[in-house]
């Protein structure tokens, strides 16, 4: 069985949407066991007792608009988010899922679970919509505004382990986000990272990738700093919304368009589903010493159940331990450990 800690109180529609997501996930995945951290009274009102469910009373939460998440985490160790992450730290569970605030999640992961020894940075890594026949990982999208070349290398290594063990891709392709495809393009960050990525035996590097190729590149993994990654991700989301609005306006504008829509209705629905972040569920937090998935703040039950499945698959693939092995080998080569 895979045991996951669930932050019941985090999210725009918590706790009810999160509870419903847990119920759905338990129906979908028979190998799943959960420890729920939240308001015990509310949870028991909406969830039937089960051998696969443990409830830990933690009614406090970190608000979505919290301006000082680090201070709040240090002052209040009894919030649902902190308690869930403490369970990961103490190895009482295999991983944690939360729809709570992004910065609070990152801060709690740093302060409580902490980074894998030897891991220089963590990264927030969403799965991009399945366009062009494949999903792709984009990292970092906000955990670090600035990164050094060696940080990008480690993140590429980590994402490669994920793609192999969770997606079953034997040699996942890694691309470096840049302003041009030729070697030597970009800032010093990209130039130095290009050299490191080119010579690392743990990854399959496919070169520089321009943002216009985001959904058409053969790469499975795209690496960049958190500032750039966040801009790319939010620009993509904005374009997807704009396309949806455009189609609605055009369909309503003419009778012929309305008739055409009737024939294309299933196609439009499939297109909408591919672009929907609900199908993925959330972003992985790579680099911490435990499995953490940050679900969308606006998660409904279906979305949150997908985030739970994401954490479940990472645990099943033993991704964290396999990344530790890579870091250990790198340290030996550098002579930093015996």
List keywords for this structure.
about 350 residues; alpha/beta; Isopropylmalate Dehydrogenase; 2 domains; eleven-stranded mixed beta sheet; 11 strands; about 45% helix
Describe the structure.
The structure is a single chain. It is built from 11 helices and 11 strands. With 338 residues, it is α/β, with parallel strands linked by helices. The protein has 2 domains: 1-119 and 287-338, Isopropylmalate Dehydrogenase, CATH 3.40.718.10; 130-280, Isopropylmalate Dehydrogenase (3-Layer(aba) Sandwich). An 11-stranded mixed sheet has the order 3-2-1-4-11-10-5-6-9-7-8, with helices on both faces. α2 (40-46) links the parallel β2 and β3. The longest helix has 28 residues, at 226-253. The model has no long low-confidence stretch (mean pLDDT 88).
SSE topology sketch:
Blueprint lengths: L1 E6 L8 H13 L3 E7 L1 H7 L6 E5 L11 H7 L4 H10 L5 E4 L3 H12 L9 E9 L2 E6 L9 H19 L5 E5 L10 H11 L5 E6 L11 E3 L2 H28 L1 H21 L6 E5 L4 E5 L5 H16 L2 H16 L4
Parallel strand pairs: 1-2, 1-4, 2-3, 4-11, 6-9, 7-8, 7-9
Antiparallel strand pairs: 5-6, 5-10, 10-11
Helix pairs in contact: 1-10, 3-5, 4-5, 6-7, 6-11, 8-9
């Amino acid at each position: 069985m895979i045991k996951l800690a669930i932050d019941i109180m985090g999210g725009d529609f918590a706790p009810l949407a999160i509870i419903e997501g847990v119920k759905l996930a338990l129906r979908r995945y028979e190998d799943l066991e959960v420890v729920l951290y939240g308001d015990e009274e509310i949870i028991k009102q909406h969830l039937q007792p089960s051998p696969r469910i443990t409830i830990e009373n933690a009614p406090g939460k970190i608000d979505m608009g919290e301006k000082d998440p680090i201070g709040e985490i240090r002052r209040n160790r009894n919030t649902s988010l902190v308690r869930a992450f403490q369970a990961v730290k103490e190895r009482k569970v295999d991983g944690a899922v939360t729809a709570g605030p992004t910065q609070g999640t990152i801060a709690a992961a740093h302060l409580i679970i902490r980074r894998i020894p030897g891991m220089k940075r963590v990264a927030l890594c969403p799965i991009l919509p399945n366009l062009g026949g494949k999903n792709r990982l984009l990292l970092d999208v906000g955990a670090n505004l600035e990164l050094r070349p060696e940080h990008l290398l480690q993140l590429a290594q980590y994402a490669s382990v994920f793609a192999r063990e969770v997606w079953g891709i034997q040699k996942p392709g890694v691309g470096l986000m840049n302003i041009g495809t030729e070697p030597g393009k970009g800032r010093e960050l990209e130039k130095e990272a290009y050299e490191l990525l080119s010579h690392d035996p743990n990854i399959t590097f496919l070169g520089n990738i321009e943002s216009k190729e985001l959904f058409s590149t053969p790469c499975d993994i795209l690496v960049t700093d958190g500032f750039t990654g966040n801009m790319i991700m939010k620009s993509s989301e904005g374009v997807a919304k704009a396309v949806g609005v455009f189609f609605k306006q055009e369909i309503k504008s003419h009778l012929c368009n309305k008739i055409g829509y009737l024939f294309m209705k299933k196609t439009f629905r499939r297109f909408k589903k591919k672009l929907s972040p609900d199908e993925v569920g959330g972003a992985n937090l790579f680099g911490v010493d435990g499995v953490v998935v940050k679900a969308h703040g606006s998660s409904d039950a279906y979305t949150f159940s997908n985030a739970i499945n994401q954490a479940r698959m990472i645990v099943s693939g033993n991704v964290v331990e396999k990344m530790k092995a890579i870091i250990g080998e790198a340290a030996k080569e550098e002579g930093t450990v015996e």
